Structures are given as C-alpha cells and as structure tokens.
Here is the input.
Amino acid sequence: MNKNKFRGKRIDNGRWEFGNVINCASGEKTYIFPIDSYANESLKIGEEGCLRLVTMEVDPETVGQYTSLKDKNGKEIYEGDAIKIDHPFHPIRIVFFDNCSFKTRIPGLNDGVFLLNLYDSNVELIGNIHDNPELLGVESDE
Here is the structure.
C-alpha cells in the first residue's frame, strides 16, 4: 500500500525529513510536513496549547516519493535510491518515477530502463544519488 510519503534533505542542516511534500505556489520553496512516527510531537504544540503546522524546508532536488517497497533488510525504497540486484553485468540500479510507475535504470546507460520488480526479494538498498553521487556511474576527473 503506497502511503504517498516523501523524503527530502533539509536546507538548514542536511538531515533527511519524511512525510508529505508541500510546494509553494511561487515554486521557490519546498517543504516536508512530517507524518506518523517521523513527526516530533513537541513541535506541534504552539502558543496556548494550539496545534500548529510544522514544516521543514528541503532542497527540491532531493525530494523523492516512497515506492511502497522495502529491500531485503526492511529499508524503505524511495526515488533516487540506488539498489543492488542479482544481475551478473549490471547489479546497481537507480530508482526513479516515470509515466505512472517506478522504474530503475543502469547508471551511465541512457537506454537501460526497467520496471521496478515488486517480487524480487534480493533487492538491497545501498545508498542514494544525493548522499552518494558516485553511484550515478559518472567518472570523476581526479
């Protein structure tokens, strides 16, 4: 069951936030509104005990939707994640959303696109393209 949950890296401290995404009408800022266990309940209480909306500004380039899938270790898989699968030649894949479905692509190959396999129990989350850009398969000039 897809909970329409998102994640994004905070602008102020670089930490990941999880919840609903809120885009400003101007398109200049993007926020995550924490939900469920990700919400810090103490931040929700404002003056005189009133509830307040707590949002965290995030880098819009890092926002990714939850696929509703978990890897073999129970870790949630989001857009922008790098996963390892059982494949002899191209075991690393990057998760992305396109045309109403989650897909994976082989880093460095433009034509290597595959549907995200819902039944592969050997998928392992190994990082994401924001914290581990080297997983994109782009060679550095160093």
About this structure: The two ends are 44 Å apart (CA to CA). The longest strand covers residues 16-23. The chain has a mean pLDDT of 82.
